[in-house]
TrEMBL record:
Taxonomic source organism: Rhizophagus irregularis
The protein's name: Uncharacterized protein
Matches recorded under InterPro entries: LRR_dom_sf
Length: 273
């Protein structure tokens, strides 16, 4: 650590070396004083988080937390100390973490977040999932990403649908999707400012909501079936600023027909199938 003058990124996911507090080694403060990106498990020994909270209050702007069995007492200390946190990724795919502890931890995050990514594993291992209504606190969000393999993780989206995020520019929903009616209401409140929207699991009614509420999109990824190609023309007419469009579907597409529709409205739009 004495030989590294300025460490910028640290990925620390070991939890079995609880007696090693390398953050207190000689040279640690100088080594870590400019740390900007941290990836770690939630159950690392408390001293690790405590020492970082004293060294990196203003430097860490990107944090990735993997919830793993339990939450260290020191993690709340670190989160409370971060004054310039901008980007947060939360991974929820391990059992054994108390929901109350997670909710308490979430309340510590500052409203400075501009990017929030939440990952939920293939199976919901928690006895109860985190209500997504907590996201309403982060009114400065510019990018919101959900990567959920189970619909259980969308608990609380029924309240989130009414929240307005005036700075939101990118909404990406991978794998499972919220109920269409909830998502359409969310787009009604936030679609006007969106520049990017990714949703793989949807139906034609959601595509019509995109037409109605998202006129300023630059990049769009949606599902369109072979018998719904007329909606593609409607989207191209409504979303005149599109630069790229990715189309998903269960069947084989008439690629020539889609290409002709795209070319009819703009030769500059990039098409991905």
């Amino acid at each position: 650590m004495c030989q590294i003058s300025s460490l910028r990124e640290l990925k620390y996911t070991l939890t079995n070396l609880t007696s090693i507090t390398f953050t207190s080694y000689p040279g640690a403060r100088d080594c870590l004083k400019n740390l900007s990106t941290l990836s770690c498990y939630s159950n690392i020994y408390p001293e690790f988080f405590y020492h970082l909270s004293k060294i990196c209050q203003t430097t860490i702007h990107t944090l990735r937390i993997i919830f793993n069995e339990s939450i260290s007492n020191g993690l709340a200390d670190l989160i409370s100390s971060l004054q310039n946190l901008r980007h947060l990724k939360v991974c929820l795919h391990k059992y054994g973490v108390d929901l109350t502890d997670i909710n308490t931890l979430i309340s510590k995050f500052p409203n400075s977040l501009i990017t929030l990514r939440i990952y939920g594993g293939i199976k919901c291992y928690f006895k109860a999932v985190i209500p997504l209504s907590f996201i309403a606190r982060f009114t400065n969000l510019q990018e919101l990403v959900f990567i959920f393999y189970s619909n259980e993780y969308y608990e609380g989206f029924n309240k989130l649908q009414y929240v307005v995020f005036p700075q939101l520019r990118s909404l990406n929903i991978y794998m499972k999707c919220p109920e269409n009616e909830l998502l359409k209401k969310f787009l009604e409140n936030n679609g006007k400012n969106l520049k990017e929207f990714y949703v793989k699991s949807n139906d034609n009614s959601l595509n019509l909501a995109i037409v109605k509420f998202c006129p300023n999109l630059r990049n769009l990824s949606i599902r369109i079936e072979d018998n719904e190609l007329e909606i593609l023309e409607t989207i191209l007419i409504s979303c005149q600023y599109l630069e790229s469009i990715r189309i998903f579907g269960y069947k084989y597409y008439n690629k020539k027909g889609i290409t002709e529709i795209i070319m009819k409205y703009s030769s500059k739009i990039k098409l991905f199938l």
